[in-house]
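Help wanted!
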Amino acid sequence: MPPLLKMIGKRLLSAIVLLWGVTVVTFLLVNVVPGDAAAANLSQQAYDDPEIRAAFEAKWGLDQPIWVQYVRYLGNILQGDLGTSQQTHRPVAEDLSQYVPATIEIALPAMALAIVIAVGLGMLAAMRKNRPTDTGIRSAALVGLSTPPFWLALVALYVFFYLLGWVPNGGRLSNIYDPPPAVTGMYTVDAAIAGQWDVFGDALWHLVLPVGILTALTVSGLLRFVRSAMIEVLDAEYIRSAIAKGLPRRIITWRHVFRAGLLPVLTVSGLMLASLLGGAVLVEQVLSWPGLGQYAYKSAISLDLQAILGVTLFIAVVYTLINLLVDVLYSVIDPRIGAK
Amino acid sequence: MRSLTAKLAVPAGAVALTLALAGCAGGNSTSNAGDQTLTVDTSFVVKTLDPGTVYEQTGNIAVHALYDTLVTYEGSDVTTLQPELAESWEQSSDGTTWTFTLRDDAVFSDGAAVTAEDAVFSLNRLKNLQGSASQTVQGLDFAAEGDDTVVVTSATPNPDVPVILAMPAASVLNSAEAKKLGATDAEDAATSDQIGTQLDTASLGSGPYVLKSYDPSTKIVLTANPKYWGEQPAYSRVVIQNVDVQNQKLTISKAKGDEIALDLSGPQAAELSDDLQVSGVADTSYFLSLNQDPAVSAVTSNPAFIKALRLTVDGEGLAKLFGEGATPAAGLVPPAFAGALDESENPVQDLDGAKKLLADAGLSDVKVALVYPAITYRGVDLGTIVTKVQQDAKKAGIEIELTPQPINVFLQSQSEGKNEINFSPNSLNYPASSSLVNNMAPGASTSLRTGWTLERADQSAIDASNAVTAELTPEGRNEAMIEWQHVMNEVSPYIALANNAGIVVATSDLTGADYTPAGWTVDLAAIAGK
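Answered by r_m:
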């Protein structure tokens, strides 16, 4: 069996153990932290009524010992049932199928844009190390890193929606439109599939602000890694030799520096993408973007156990798959790694 | 090398393309631009649109527009009940039986007549589903007499029955259709009702609107019910959209169409342009509750300490923190409801008096812990309110240690009854001031959370509470509530601080966008253009 396939097989097997561990830890944590799901979901008077409280606990299986709840949950998962959310009263899988595409729709473009911008600016900063260009880029990145996402979202909303009127105030679609027929759950894609170009344009317009904010936040984090990785490569002996040999700058930059500097960037990008897919809670909240972040936040404050477990499991799967993907890409970019 | 202008041309072009696409109307358009649309901005708090289990604010707003109740309120007035499905109602002389006579022309959205059987089915289902709102109808029995008479009997005399039946949770469902979907009003409905989320996809009511779509995270779309038995609403389409509280001020300020916002705070409303209309009523009270169990706190269970802390409260100053529409609290009943104390009875801060009480009681270097939920409620950070309470108390020598808790933790710790002082907002379950007695009388549920048992209560508090429940008419109860509050201000562990207003902000060309403390925030069907 080729080493790459063997590696993928091993990683997938260990992922199963990892995901099981995630369910155990999450289940325990949710049950250990202070708070009572009945108190969080019922009115005060209803909570004080023993009959109503008992009915609530029986309905959601909370009247059973924790280990019974867990075994039931695990059994259901194995049958593809993630349970029912207390906050939406819908199957968690159905909720995830709605909220995950909404998050993907802003996370993927934001990550792609961030990589392009961060790699470009990072390389420029590395090549102009300690010069005004480098200082300017580093300072901008520092400002970006120090800016709270919530505050940035509010300021961006104020400037681009309120003052300039260039973007809508949030949400996924203007009120005059109905969502396109669901295929992928991503409105831009679904509208394009359905040929609803006015809806497509409106959905795209609604992407501008959240994608812009997430891009800005991600660029700031990524830039530092790109710059350090590139500086390290630029200091390598083979690059100095290439310069001494009089190789054209363009070839040195793109064929040698860029490719070699990309490896550490790939790892960080993978983690950042996983983090974005896990939901940009505060940005989603301010911009009323109905993604995974909002769902996770609302689940947490209402102690919606099934939803919390569903979100956690999804994020664990995302991290596992992205790490695997990064490792595979490592092997492709640097075949020496795959051979080890 | 390409010029900077050329480099900028690509992103600029992309934005232009986006804007152009946004503006164009494709051949396969799904635009509702031709409809008369009212947009409602609110931060969603919704779990269901099933009247039997609806309890949260956003759900109540929608359900009130989709369904009818036997009786209702108009505008912001919650003192006079109005007929809706019932054209008349009367109470028996012993106060235990209410008879509602239904109008004969009301129909559901499918054209079927609304009957007494539908009402009884819906109310029994509400009672037996054991949801949050079920508690309000416990102790009530419902029966149909013919097609047009609903008889409600109460285990004890209860003049508040019509008020309870005006709440969105008491809405009347098309029982035949609901049964087909698996609904039941049986005593075991909590486990045997199988309707699930089907009422989140299609409504079964007789209200002015029908449900077009429901997404608990983005928007709820209602369209006018073509078979509505009453006057057609002005807007053929209503979109209730989820807008974060922080975002609502900007959104309503830029609104070009017919739009309302429901979650702005008093300070935010005060900053709005004069073009916008603001409607608000002080209907939520904020109060401290001091634990009466000496094992929990020897200080807070000391009557002299309660009186002293009460004298440190600066009601005017607290009301200013809440902003427009807020008032100091003279008693536990907010001014929106009949039975509230007159503003002339607003307490006056008396720090010297507080110091003297503490000294006389031998209380020096007093230190107590105040627990509160670390949340922003109606746009006001509760931390700012308790900090003001803390500062005022300190002037009299009382040191309060503030303990913010996540809302889940607070709800649990409050219910365990081990906190020295709790601080939280309080809204009435239904717009009758006497409903407070059900929870706040000695030995009642809220009181037990602060250790205020019948044994520990002053007899005058028990007598005043009994005097309220002994009254057989709403007017009598409201009158008794005045005296009840006087007594509570003297001997209860509750210290009313201030009343905050619920607010509806509307664009200038709207009428009928009145905030109501009735439970549904605003009557969407009553809103029209000028």
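OP: Thanks! One thing I noticed: Chain B has two domains: 2-276+507-529, 281-501.
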